[in-house]
Q: What sequence folds into this?
């Protein structure tokens, strides 16, 4: 098959495949890439565009999760820090290291000396691969955040994590997998039905844009449907399934950099004990997140209460800024697919690690985890699957750099031309205007989106959706 656009069409899938992966967020992309690198013929499908749900709605950090130190979750932090530092090396065009300031006040729950000890532990858990932590004076903190509340400020703890383009990393993992000969990835394709056939399954897939349906036989099914998993498995009724998910919504807002004038990322610690990240990226600043009970609906948006929570805290920490709802450039929300194995766990305390379930010999269900640890999550499915197929798992394969870069890279300027859009259509297979503008071109705030739409309209292109 000549190009990725062809490999993304339902009509071009072979009638039988050893593995079908349902759900193309970062979890599915990681599994697809790993299987493809092992040359296992497989297909990845998603009912919407790839990475259009939780995996484009994160806080856009590769991180160890400094606050999980409080839950004494050292193994998770160690693993995530090593993965963060690996991806910084493998994809320097999609992620970069940053120093995060954590301002400490006289009224803060933890004084500066305690914060310093936590940061030392954080660096140690990274095997000292992190940029080293430091403690910044009040003057240095205010130099970096000139509009930050001064009263009671005692300084800042400074540690390093990474900023990532979450949507692009998921997409590039998929492109990497598609380089392998027998790997297919169909966006806007849903799993409508599934029945057992012999030792495998017959799945009915539907192209959500054309309505076309096809039955494909497959030997193994892998569910990487994140927050949508309990609902989907209940509907399919393929095997008995006790719901496992505790859904927790988190929302973010985009502002122009000149609203808060932050010269780098910071972590605010509001009175409710949560944390809010303020992360400038090129000309915009990302602020989030919240943590409220969520549901498994698609295309989530922040509630008014979440927007007000973030605005109120910004007003509290940046009293000199006259920040208000009018200054919001864009907003988004996602739902954390947390696995609740302990019936007493609460939203803030439920474990963030991932789980693999195998309700039948040929079905794997991957749930939970963090964006940062997706490679390890995928290994925990692919390793036993290959073992079952009597094949050796090769640890070196997923340590290789990705084989295809996006045509438009994050944080880099580009000129919008007819040729560029044509290349994107062939190599990155957007199938709707939103796929193109939001995820392939990377315009993720509503105001920028509308400007980009006008520029594309002016090119008078013959787009598949127009
Ligand atoms: C607010 C927030 C902030 C976060 N910040 C960070 C962070 O900074 N760093 C970090 O490491 N982690 C972070 N996380 C966690 C991380 O984003 C998630 O763990 C991860 O994105 C989940 O990916 P997933 O692939 O499991 O789910 P999803 O990305 O939701 O993918 C599931 C896919 O399944 C598809 N699907 C559903 N039903 C069907 C069907 N019937 N047929 C076909 N496809 C279907 C959906 O369309 C979807 O694309 C954050 C999470 C949230 C919510």
A:
């Amino acid at each position: 098959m000549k190009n990725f656009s062809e490999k993304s069409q339902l009509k071009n899938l072979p009638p039988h495949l050893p593995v079908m992966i349902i759900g193309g967020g970062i979890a599915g992309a990681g599994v697809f890439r790993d299987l493809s690198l092992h040359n296992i013929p497989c297909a990845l499908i998603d009912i919407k565009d790839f990475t259009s749900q939780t995996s484009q709605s994160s806080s856009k950090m590769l991180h160890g999760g400094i606050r999980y130190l409080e839950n004494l979750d050292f193994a998770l932090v160690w693993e995530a820090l090593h993965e963060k530092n690996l991806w910084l090396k493998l994809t320097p065009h999609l992620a970069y290291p940053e120093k995060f300031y954590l301002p400490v006040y006289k009224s803060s729950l933890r004084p500066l000396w305690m914060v310093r000890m936590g940061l030392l532990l954080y660096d140690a858990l990274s095997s000292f691969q992190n940029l080293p932590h430091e403690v910044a004076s009040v003057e240095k903190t205010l130099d970096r955040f000139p509009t930050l509340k001064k009263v009671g400020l005692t300084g800042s703890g400074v540690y390093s994590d990474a900023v990532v383009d979450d949507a692009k990393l998921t997409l590039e993992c998929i492109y990497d997998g598609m380089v392998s000969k027998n790997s297919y990835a169909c966006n806007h394709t849903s799993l409508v039905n599934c029945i057992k056939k012999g030792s495998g399954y017959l799945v009915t897939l539907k192209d959500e844009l054309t309505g076309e349906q096809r039955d494909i036989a497959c030997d193994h099914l892998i569910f990487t449907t994140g927050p949508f998993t309990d609902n989907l498995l209940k509907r399919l009724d393929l095997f008995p399934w006790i719901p496992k998910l505790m859904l927790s919504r988190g929302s973010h807002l985009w502002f122009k950099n000149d609203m808060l004038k932050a010269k780098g990322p910071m972590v605010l610690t509001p009175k409710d004990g949560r944390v809010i990240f303020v992360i400038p990226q090129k000309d915009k600043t990302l602020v989030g997140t919240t943590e409220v009970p969520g549901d498994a609906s698609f295309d989530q948006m922040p509630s008014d209460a979440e927007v007000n929570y973030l605005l109120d805290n910004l007003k509290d920490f940046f009293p000199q800024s006259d920040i208000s709802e009018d200054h919001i450039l864009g907003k988004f929300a996602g739902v954390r697919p947390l696995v609740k194995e302990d019936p007493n766990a609460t939203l803030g305390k439920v474990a963030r690690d991932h789980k693999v379930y195998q309700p039948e010999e040929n079905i794997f269900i991957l749930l939970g985890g963090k964006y940062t640890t997706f490679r390890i999550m995928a290994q925990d499915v692919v390793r036993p699957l290959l073992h079952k197929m009597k094949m050796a798992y090769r640890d070196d394969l997923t340590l290789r750099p990705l084989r295809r870069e996006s045509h438009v890279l994050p944080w880099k300027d580009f000129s919008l031309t007819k040729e560029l859009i044509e290349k994107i259509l062939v190599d990155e297979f957007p199938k709707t205007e939103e796929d193109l503008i939001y995820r392939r071109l990377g315009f993720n705030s509503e105001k920028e989106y509308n400007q980009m739409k006008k520029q594309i309209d002016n090119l008078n292109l013959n787009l598949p959706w127009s």
Observations:
- The pocket of flavin-adenine dinucleotide is lined by residues 22-28, 45-48, 52-55, 57-61, 63, 190-191, 224-228, 232, 250, 289, 334-337, 369-372 (CB under 6 Å).
- Residues 33 and 177 are 4 Å apart (CA to CA).
